[in-house]
Amino acid sequence: MKLLLYSHFFAPSVGGVETLVLSLARGLAGLRDVQGKALFGVTLVTQTGAEGFSDEALPFRVVRQPGILQLWQLIGSNDVLHVAGPALSPIVLGLLRNKPAIVEHHGFQTICPNGQLLIEPGGIPCPGHFMAGRHRECWRCNAMQGSASSLKFWLLTFVRRFLCRRVAANITPTAWLGELVQLPRTTAIAHGLEMSSARTAGRTQTTRVPVIAFQGRLVTTKGVKVLFEAARILSERERAFELVVIGDGPERAELERIARESALAGRVRFTGRLGGPELDAALAKAEVVVVPSLGGEVFGLVVAENMARGLPVIASDLGAFVEVVGDAGLTFRTGDTQELALALAKILDDPELAAALARRGQERAARFCDFARMLEAHAQIYEQARS
């Protein structure tokens, strides 16, 4: 089968969608039948420039920044179109060419004009104003973008829903997201982890001071300030710990200032963005990983990856996180610093609890995020769509 996989963002751009699309494309390209013949001929199309990235090293073809005519031709020459996110151009062209199109949802673009399900500029979780018909709230939410842009975002949400109702299938990474988007022919397929790489970090005890780790992009929605406040509470109770912040982003300078000028001075270390062995080595020293996001999450790749590493995870009680964690980690009420501080104290005070959560987390990640099962589920949807 010839499969066209469209992702607006791709390597060398860095992000969750880029990571997931690369993993899916590489996995599908490696599938073989009993005779050893490739099941899929994968072509990946993206609007991201190469910027020195070596596409030749990938086991599939990459086409970057095609024009409309080239995209039309590419869609026509493939059997199935898979779109990572409800990107308008490829979906419209796929429907016009009468090609089976599958949309995999990596955000909230079909139910929220800003795609985050957050009320801006405060980053407050949205109760679902668009789907409830409270459209004035949507206009207010995006007012800082200007009235024309706010109207555009709102109108495009209707367009995306219209198109996604007409594709062959919709895929969501969690059943929770599937219930929110309310689109026909929706199947939940959890993101698969290539477990061999996810397990490379073996936990080590190299310091007597417990290490609390955060890993993610340093933006408001990731909730680092919530973690800082919970850490401050622990500090005031004279608890010994080091807080390691792994990642980079536009809020880094502000967060570094807060760390210097607060009760956390000397307790917080910023590593910048890490990957590969450096990331594994940093996390191997952690007692617990905290994922305190305020919203905008449809799966929780950091949650799943660190469960797979055998690290206890504490996450905010966003719907996606609750589904991924199950009973294999601790959750706290989103934004509640006192609850987070209590959860951290539980982990730091009870090594047996931490070990049990680590073990259950590893088992759940292996089961819930099974990579082979994810590939098989996608392959079945492609076959159904083509038939």
What's the CATH first level of the largest domain?
Answer: Alpha Beta
| Largest beta-sheet characterization | 7 strands, parallel
Radius of gyration: 22 Å
Query: What class would the helix/strand composition place it in?
Result: alpha/beta
CATH topology category name of the largest domain: Rossmann fold
The name of the CATH architecture of the largest domain is: 3-Layer(aba) Sandwich
Poorly predicted runs are 196-206
Distance between the termini: 12 Å
What is the H/E order? EHEEHEHEEEHHEHEHEHEHEHEHEHEHHH
Query: How many individual domains?
Result: 2
- Mean pLDDT over all positions: 94
For the secondary structure, the number of strands is 15
Q: What is the overall silhouette?
A: globular
Strand order, sheet with most strands:
3-2-1-4-5-8-9
Helix content: 40-55%
The CATH fourth-level homologous superfamily of the largest domain: Glycogen Phosphorylase B
In percent terms, what proportion of residues is strand? 15-25%
Count of helix runs: 15
Quick recap of the structure?
By secondary structure, this protein is α/β, with parallel strands linked by helices. The chain has 15 helices and 15 strands. Strands 3-2-1-4-5-8-9 form a 7-stranded parallel beta sheet, sandwiched between helices. The chain has a 6-stranded parallel beta sheet with strand order 12-11-10-13-14-15, sandwiched between helices. A two-stranded antiparallel sheet has the order 6-7.
